[in-house]
Amino acid sequence: MSPRVDPAGDQTGILAPLVADHERAAAYFWSFMVDRSVRFLPERLAPVFFSTLVEAIAHGADPAAYRAGLVVLGRLYRRFDLYPYHGTVIAAAVVDTVRRFAGESWGPESARVWEQGCFRVLRLAEQSAEMLGDGPQVTFGVVESVASAGGDLAVVTVRPVRRLDYVPGDALPVCSPRVPGRWRWLSPANAPRPDGTVEFHIRAIPGGAVSPVFVGRVGVGELLWLGPSCEVGLSSAAVGDGDLLLVAGGTGLAPLRAVVEQLAGLPVRRRVTLVVGARDLSELWDVAGLDGVRRAHGDWLTVVSASSEDDVDPVAAGGLLGVVLHHYVPGQAVYVCGPPQLIEEARTWLLVGGVSPDDLHPVVTFRHGFDVVSWASRQRSVTAAVAEVAGGEGGDRWVGDVP
Questions:
Q1: Tens digits of residue pLDDT in 311-352
Q2: Full-prediction pTM beyond 0.70?
Q3: Is 373 helix (H, G, I), strand (E, B) or coil?
Q4: Measured torsion, CA atoms of residues 265, 266, 271, 276, in degrees rounded to the nearest 10
Q5: Can you tell me the distance from the alpha carbon of 291 to that of 287, in angstroms, rounded to the nearest whole number?
Q6: Read out DSSP for 287-346?
Q7: What is the DSSP string of 173-237?
Q8: Are strands 301-307 and 272-278 parallel, antiparallel or unpaired?
Q9: pLDDT in tens, 33-87
């Protein structure tokens, strides 16, 4: 599932009018297929399928975002029991719809480019469907609250229309209809709750296409699209009952906080050290959210903060990893989550510093081939893990730092 290189150049000009009027475009796409007696897709999911498909055809430079879209398409492909022969009518519907809404941006080579691109993405969606197997479906959620946690950070609480099945530490594709088809990986900052709500921590990345929308424009009552949860290397079940050393940089704390909440509810106790790095003290705001857990479970949970007040990022300066090595005890499973720079540094310097390769578990960033292979190999076991946690029901930045 490698990102696509468009042989015909930038398709942004064609995509822009589709984004601006995506609901009408999706309705036209759906009607095109219905008129030809192809009724695999419910009308309510037509905007999700169509917008994700055309975005995958037109873009592909961001490996993580591209794979998020393919995960969504793969789940829909399997859910609606699609086959390769469906591709002909889907491609015809895409080309006709894009032509209708593109206006003057449509050129003599556009039909060929979009048809070939559609067939290619559908082949990748088929591969994604096979890799993912059965499991949590694409669904919707309503924004219950948006709270500012600083100028560029928002805490968005969502109530899914059907209970979201995930294991703490998982990530899932999330999309706002304000930027249709542009999925980003987000990770719940809480273990599953009785009321089903899910909390996401999102930082606005300067110049980003999606994160400023979540932080500055998405409001209470809006609908979000939620993809299936995926295992990204942070599941505590992978190491049994062993002790854990959790390392969080920035919003990478969100999934590790969910893991801590999960461990607090389990009868088996293990020693857990959580090391949190930030550029300054203001970025450590969420550590306070763990105070209640730490006070109640101080016999097994230790929280260590590493920040810098002199404009030096402790991750870049190596300070955070130095703190990690100070607290590392051989045999601990070391989970690392944060921006790509932290993951790259951890993969090198923690091993140099004495952490066993078998103990190191960096989060998947999709920036390397071995990341993708490792991630793909995990997904088949996700359904069983989700079912166990849910009580028998099957549901260039890290998650949280959304470009």
A1: 444 444 457 888 999 999 999 999 999 988 899 999 999 999
A2: yes
A3: helix
A4: -40
A5: 7
A6: GGGGHHHHHHSTTTEEEEEEE-SSS--TTTTTHHHHHHHHH--TT-EEEEES-HHHHHHI
A7: EEE-TTSTT--EEE--SS---TT--EEEEEEEPTT-SSHHHHHHT--TT-EEEE---B--S--GG
A8: parallel
A9: 999 888 888 999 999 999 999 999 987 668 889 999 999 999 999 999 998 889 9
